[in-house]
Amino acid sequence: MQKQHPITQDHISIKILNLTFSGFIILSNISVFFPHTFRILKSGGGPFGYGVLLLPVTFIGILYLIPALLTFKRKNHYNRTLLWINITGIIGCAYWVYFFNSSLFS
């Protein structure tokens, strides 16, 4: 039988950060990465096919969805490794969301 450790304020803040960052990653995937990926695939990359060059960026953004979804399992709420992955994911996703929503792609 494992010994239960008491939940401290540090654990609660890790849980809140993990769930918040995961939620933002999921929202950015639903609102930006999935639509742009489908738009690029549907158009074949545009007139000259240069849109295909953005597919690796969108796929990396979609791959951050895996640790974000894993965070919602109860045993992973306090996982520091997933927290660091989600932090890098939220930084990368925020940059690319800004990039995709700039006037260049309007």
Query: How much helicity do the residues have?
Result: 55-70%
Measured by DSSP, the beta-strand proportion falls in under 5%
Span of the ends, CA to CA: 58 Å
Q: Low-confidence runs (pLDDT<50, min 5 residues)?
A: none
The major pleated sheet works out as: none
Cα shape? elongated
**Whole-angstrom Rg:** 17 Å
Q: Could you say how many structural domains there are in total? A: 1
**Number of distinct beta strands:** 0
Instruction: Name the structural class.
Output: mainly alpha
Q: What is the ordering of alpha helices and beta strands? A: HHHH
Output mean pLDDT: 85
Q: Given the structure, what is the number of helices?
A: 4
Transmembrane segments: 12-36, 48-70, 82-100
Keywords: Membrane, Transmembrane, Transmembrane helix
Describe the fold and architecture.
It is a single chain. This protein is mostly helical and 106 residues long. The chain has one domain. The chain contains four helices and no strands. Helix 1 packs antiparallel against helix 2. The model has no long low-confidence stretch (mean pLDDT 85). Keywords: Membrane, Transmembrane, Transmembrane helix.
